[in-house]
Amino acid sequence: MPPALKENWVDTLNKFELKNYDIITNGSIHKITDPEKYDLIIVDEAHKFRNDTAEVYNELQKLCKTKTKHHLSDGTKAEKKVMLITATPLNNRPSDIANQVYLFQDAKDSTLEVSNLQHFFRKKIDAYKRLKENTNIAEVQEGVKVIYQEIRDKVIAPLTIRRTRTDLKIHNQYKADLDQQGIIFPDIKKPIKVFYQLSPQVEELYDDTMRLLSHEIDGIKYYRYQAIKFLKPDKKSKYKNADVASGDFS
To answer: For residues 143 and 131, what is the distance between their CA atoms, to the nearest angstrom?
Structure first.
């Protein structure tokens, strides 16, 4: 985790009275001398580990994939449990997702239905790169939809753990724990319509605003973010399709 988050984790773990843990910041992973002693690895701000060329990535991957000291019934050492946490899933190119999954999954022999993740993601990464060079917005949007649909269904969904209010209510184990603690989630009712009587002046202002927002001829126009389009020629020449590229694919 980033050093700035260490204090928050210490405070939270103390509140839950957890003692048997180590908090290791990103710059100190290489100092771990006994990676086998950990049974569970929790990676906070996991989106920062999207680049497999960084040394800290290699150190973390080694830590996550080193087996524990505990032995299974067949005599082999147990695999670690790895949990990736992020509230900032902005770095979500196919290559970014692949590298984060590779922290705890074997790229060529995963535990998922897609056994060879390397082959699976190679096709998605190549397709994504081709879309970046496509100037047809409709084709790009449809292509992106297809790429990420498969990634969500075959990789993200089987690996993601979500705990919504509905999950907590319908699973007996969670529900029993909530009942024991006396925790009750209120039922959310449908919105209630409230009508306001506008004065003639405010009503006219409202109508003018809606017209400006929706009218295609003399209303407000909407444009994609294209920062590199307005660079000076000597700078813009470094980018492919600078005049049509969107900020989403930079």
So the answer is: 7
Domain boundary among 72, 98, 124: 98
For residue 115, the enclosing domain spans 105-191
Whether the full predicted model's pTM is greater than 0.85, yes or no, is no
Amino acid letter, residue 211: R
Residue 116, both tokens: 């060879």
Q: Is residue 88 located within the same domain as residue 112?
A: no
Task: Give the residue among 247, 244, 250 at the shortest CA–CA distance from 225.
Answer: 247
Q: CA separation (Å) from 210 to 9, 15, 85, 198, 223?
A: 47, 51, 41, 15, 18
Closest of 85, 61, 69, 93 to residue 8, by C-alpha: 85
Give residues with Cβ within 8 angstroms of 162, minimum separation 6.
none
Q: Which of 34, 69, 98 is the last residue of a domain?
A: 98
Kindly state the percentage of the chain with pLDDT values over 90.
40
Written as six digits, the tokens of 48 are 């920062």
Number of domains in the chain: 3
Average pLDDT, the chain: 86
Q: Are residues 149 and 204 in the same domain?
A: no
Pairing state of beta strands 81-85 and 40-44?
parallel
Q: Sign of the CA dihedral 92, 95, 96, 99?
A: positive
> Do 85 and 2 share a structural domain?
yes
Q: Where do the DSSP E strands lie in the chain?
A: 40-44, 81-85
